[in-house]
Design brief:
homodimer, 316 residues, alpha+beta, Ribosomal Protein S5, domain 2, Alpha-Beta Plaits, four-stranded antiparallel sheet, 37% helix, kinase (chains A, B), transferase (chains A, B)
C-alpha cells in the first residue's frame, strides 16, 4: 500500500539541450524555458487517464500507453503496485520535434509529479528508468537518457554509462548563458540518427575526445576561450548540419557576435550558442534569429542560464 | 647575438605516463622519478657535441643528429642563431623503450638546460617544438607531443590540439599517487602503434569519450570512485595488452588491492595504477610487482605523486 502525501500537484519540467557539440550522446543540460507542465489528480480508478492536452501538443495521443507522460506514469504505478489511478493534464509549452527534449520534459514532469504525491518519494536515480519508459515511444526503441537525465537532474550532466545510469553533474560557470533558437521546420530524431556513420576514423575520434576533455575543463574552470576552442563536433554535426537550412551562416553569426561555441541541440533543428553573460546571450540570440528571419523561417528564441534545479512543483 | 646567463648547467627531466587509460593520444602526466639528467657546457665550437652518455643509455648514438637530446639542442641553436656550441653529457637514469617517455625526458632535459643558459629564456610554448624535434627520432616521423608536453609542463596535461600545441593543465587531487611498474621486456612504439585499428565503431568511440569526460571530472573533483569507473580504455588497451605478459592478472591484482584504475603507460610495456595516498600506492606497486616476480620477469617499481614542476635545474 502506497501512502500519499497529497491528492494533486502541478509540475513544470524544462526543455534540455543534448549532445552539446563534441559531447555526442554523453552531454545534456537543462534550460529555464521552455518546458512542459503536467497536473496529476489521484482517482479511485486504477490506471492512467489523460484528461486534457493543451498548448503545442495538439497532435499527441490521449491513449496513455501511446503518450510519453502516460506510459512513464503507468510504468511507475505498476512498480509501486499502486491501488489508485491518475487523471493527467498535459500543458505542452514547447514545440514538439524541436530537438529540445520535448518528450523528456513531459515524461519527467509526469514522474516528478507522481513522486511529489508520495509520502516517501523516490530518489532521482529510481525515477530515471520510469521517465525513460516514456521516452521509448519517441525514440523508437533505442533509449538515450541524455535529455531525460538533464531534465530530471537539472544542471549540466554527463551520461558516463547509459547502461548503469551513471549520471555525473558537471559544475558550470555561474555566468554561462545559452541562446537557443528553434526554427519551425521538422526533423525526426530517428531519421537524424540514420544519417550517422557506424564507424569513424581513429584520428577523428581522438580529436573528438580531446575536445570533450577540453570542454569539461573549460566548464569547470570558467575558461570561455577554451570552451570556444573545444566546442566542435567532428562526428554528428557534419552529417546533421545539412538538415538545418543556412547552418553555416547561423554559426558564423553567433561566433562573430562573440559566442563561446555553437552547435545543434539534440538532433536539431534547434541550435544553441553558449555565451558569457545575459546581455551577450541576448545579442547572439538576436543574431541567430535574424539569419532565420532573412530566409523567412519562423522561429522562437529562448535565452537561459543553466537550470540547476530541473523540474519543480508549481502548485498542489 | 644571444646573451648567456651562465656557461654550464645540469638539469633533470622526469619520466611521463602518456595515453592514461581512455585518454589515448590526449593525456599525459609527469612522475617524480625516474628521469634523465643532461649537463650542458658552452663551447666556442658551434654545433652540438655529445661527450658522454652514462646510465641506462649505453646503446644511444653519440652523433648529435641521431640522438634525441642532440637533435633537440641543434634545432634550438639553429633557431636562436647561436654563435656558440654545446658539449653535452647525458645521464640516462631510466630504461629506454619502457613506455615512460625516455626520449621525451632526454629532449626536454636538453632544451630546458639550454634555456636555463640564456639571459632571456623562452616560454615553455616556444620550447615545446624543439623538444619535439628530438622526439622525431624515436617516433619515426609521427610526432605525438603527449610525453614531451607532460614532461616539459609538469602536472597532468591534455593535448587538446596537437597541431597548434594547445596544451591544457588538468588540476589533480593532492593525494593522487601513481604506482608504475616497468617489466624488462621490449615493445617498440612504432610496432605498438601498428597494432591499432584505423577505424572504430561509433558506439565504442562514444564509450571512450564518456569515460574521458568522467576521468577529467574525477581528477578535478577528487572523486576516486568515478576515476575508477572511468579509467577504461576501449580502444588501445585490448590490442596492446596482448603484448604485456599476464596483463589481466596485473590489472586484477592492482584493482583488488584498491587502485583507482590501471592501464598501460604509453605503448607499454610499463603499467601504472592510480591510488589515493602513498601507503596504498606502495601496496599496489608491490602487488603488481609480485605478479611479474611469480612469472620471473625482472622489473622496476616507481611510486610517485603527480610531478607538478616538470624539469628542474640540479646545479649550475
Amino acid at each position: 500500500m502506497i501512502a500519499l502525501h497529497r491528492e494533486n500537484v502541478r509540475v513544470f519540467a524544462p526543455a534540455t539541450v543534448a549532445n552539446v557539440g563534441c559531447g555526442f550522446d554523453i552531454f545534456g543540460f537543462a534550460l529555464n524555458e521552455p518546458g512542459d507542465e503536467v497536473r496529476l489528480q489521484v482517482t479511485d480508478n486504477p490506471g492512467v487517464s489523460i484528461a486534457k492536452i493543451s498548448g503545442d501538443g495538439g497532435l499527441l495521443p490521449y491513449q496513455a500507453q501511446h503518450n510519453t507522460a502516460g506510459r512513464a506514469l503507468q510504468s511507475m504505478l505498476d512498480t509501486l503496485q499502486a491501488d489508485f489511478g491518475l487523471e493527467v493534464e498535459i500543458r505542452k509549452k514547447m514545440p514538439i520535434g524541436s530537438g529540445l527534449g520535448s518528450s523528456a520534459a513531459s515524461s519527467v514532469a509526469a514522474v516528478f509529479a507522481l513522486n511529489a504525491l508520495l509520502k516517501e518519494p523516490l530518489s532521482n536515480e529510481r525515477l530515471l528508468p520510469f521517465a525513460l519508459e516514456g521516452e521509448r515511444i519517441a525514440a523508437g526503441g533505442a533509449l538515450h537518457p541524455d535529455n531525460v537525465a538533464a531534465c530530471l537532474y537539472g544542471g549540466f550532466v554527463l551520461i558516463r554509462d547509459k547502461s548503469t545510469y551513471d549520471i555525473i553533474n558537471i559544475p558550470t560557470p555561474p555566468d554561462l548563458y545559452c541562446a537557443v533558437v528553434h526554427p519551425r521546420i521538422e526533423i525526426i530524431t530517428s531519421e537524424a540518427r540514420k544519417m550517422l556513420k557506424n564507424q569513424l576514423p581513429l584520428q577523428q575520434a581522438i580529436t573528438q575526445w580531446a575536445n570533450v576533455a577540453g570542454m569539461v575543463i573549460a566548464l569547470m574552470t570558467s575558461d570561455y576561450d577554451l570552451l570556444r576552442r573545444s566546442l566542435h563536433d567532428e562526428v554528428a554535426e557534419p552529417d546533421r548540419a545539412v538538415l538545418i537550412p543556412h547552418y553555416e551562416a547561423l554559426k558564423k553569426a553567433a561566433l562573430q557576435k562573440g559566442a563561446s561555441g555553437f552547435g545543434i541541440s539534440g538532433s536539431g533543428p534547434s541550435v544553441f550558442a553558449f555565451c558569457k553573460g545575459l546581455p551577450l546571450a541576448k545579442k547572439v540570440g538576436a543574431a541567430i534569429r535574424s539569419v532565420f528571419q532573412e530566409n523567412e523561417i519562423g522561429n522562437e528564441v529562448y535565452i537561459s542560464d543553466i537550470n540547476k534545479q530541473g523540474p519543480k512543483i508549481i502548485s498542489g
